[in-house]
Amino acid sequence: MKGKILIVDDQFGIRILLNEVFQKEGYKTFQAANGVQALEIVTQEVPDLALLDMKIPGMDGIEILKRMKKLYKDIRVIIMTAYGELDMIQEAKDLGALTHFAKPFDIDDLRAAVKEYIIS
Q1: pTM as predicted
Q2: What are the CA-CA distances from residue 22 to residues 19, 48, 49, 116 (Å)?
Q3: Residue 114's pLDDT band (boundaries 50, 70, 90)?
């Protein structure tokens, strides 16, 4: 097992794509469609890395990130954003996000970043 990845995105298609890609790479994956689900998974499974969308209805990505870090300060987070959310990107990095990917992202670039940042 290479490590555990939490995929947090309200878009079903993106969750399924990322889940499939990272399971094939040998990671154990978890999916969350919202902040409540994400925080439950962080509490129960303690993932090594989270792929976190910033625009999620209800609890947004910044709030999810803050709460994840409160639960588990060492969790590594890569954020995913729509193009042009520069303020949010900077705030997320200030809160401890490692890097960001603008949607639509190149899946190979994202795979390389996960490989670089995950604790194996």
Answers
A1: 0.95
A2: 5, 13, 12, 14
A3: very high
Rounded distance, CA 1 to CA 7, Å? 17
CB 47 within 8 A of CB 8: no
Please list, in sequence order, all residues whose beta carbon lies within 8 angstroms of the beta carbon of residue 27, skipping any fewer than 6 positions away. Answer: 1, 2, 3, 4, 5, 114, 118
| Residues 58 and 33: beta-carbon distance below 8 Å | no
Alpha-carbon distance of 1 to 4, in angstroms, equals 8
Rounded to an integer, what distance in angstroms lies between the CA atom of residue 100 and that of residue 19? 18
Rg (C-alpha) for the chain, rounded Å, is 13
Instruction: Compute the mean pLDDT over every residue in the chain, rounded to the nearest whole number.
Output: 94
In the β-sheet with 49-53, what is the strand arrangement from edge to edge? 28-32, 4-8, 49-53, 76-82, 99-103
Rounded Cα distance between 29 and 98, Å, is 19
Which positions ≥6 away from 99 have C-beta within 8 Å?
78, 79, 113, 117
